[in-house]
Amino acid sequence: QVQLVESGGGQVHPGDSLKLTCTASGSSFSNYRTAWFRQAPGKEREFVAIISGSGASTFYAYDVKGRFTASRDNAKNLVFLSMNSLKPEDTAVYYCAAILGAVNPPSSRSRSDPNQYHYWGQGTQVTVSS
């Protein structure tokens, strides 16, 4: 069992940076690959990024690639999402999600399907506006 809590959201201006943190409770967190999703008002939850249990492998959604970076500190049970060059369209509630299994699946569909993930945090709001 894993419990996840996101933090670090806030309101920023376009072009600013923000770093989200997902804090996990439970042991052996390195056995869980962890993803970030986001959901804007009136839209479906969408995949943002995934990081393997070791942190060695990451994948990103097309529209955040090069701007967002996922990382983790397994010694502290933390997963991060560093977001740079933020745009108004990045405004959403951001969620971290985890599933037992350290290796990222080869299928992008499997990586990005929210139904694959068993554990979810409550979300943190990110608002990008001028």
Model description:
The chain is mostly beta strands and 130 residues long. The chain is 4% helix and 47% strand. It has one helix at residues 108-112, and strands at residues 3-7, 10-12, 18-25, 32-39, 46-51, 58-60, 68-73, 78-83, 92-100, 119-120, 124-128. The strands form 2 sheets. Strands 2, 4, 5, 6, 9, 10 and 11 form a 7-stranded mixed β-sheet that branches. Strand 4 (32-39) and strand 5 form a beta hairpin.
Q: What is the alpha-carbon Rg in Å?
A: 14 Å
- Shape, principal axes of CA atoms: globular
- N-to-C order of helices and strands: EEEEEEEEEHEE
Instruction: Please state roughly what percent of the residues sit in beta strands, choosing from under 5%, 5-15%, 15-25%, 25-35%, 35-45% or over 45%.
Output: over 45%
Q: Regions with pLDDT < 50 over 5+ consecutive residues?
A: none
Strand count, sense and barrel status of the largest sheet are:
7 strands, mixed
Mean pLDDT: 95
If helices are DSSP runs of H or I spanning 4 or more residues, what is the number of helices? Answer: 1
Q: Which structural category fits the helices and strands?
A: mainly beta
Indicate the percent of residues in helices: under 10%
How many individual β-strands? Answer: 11
Note the gap between the termini. Answer: 40 Å
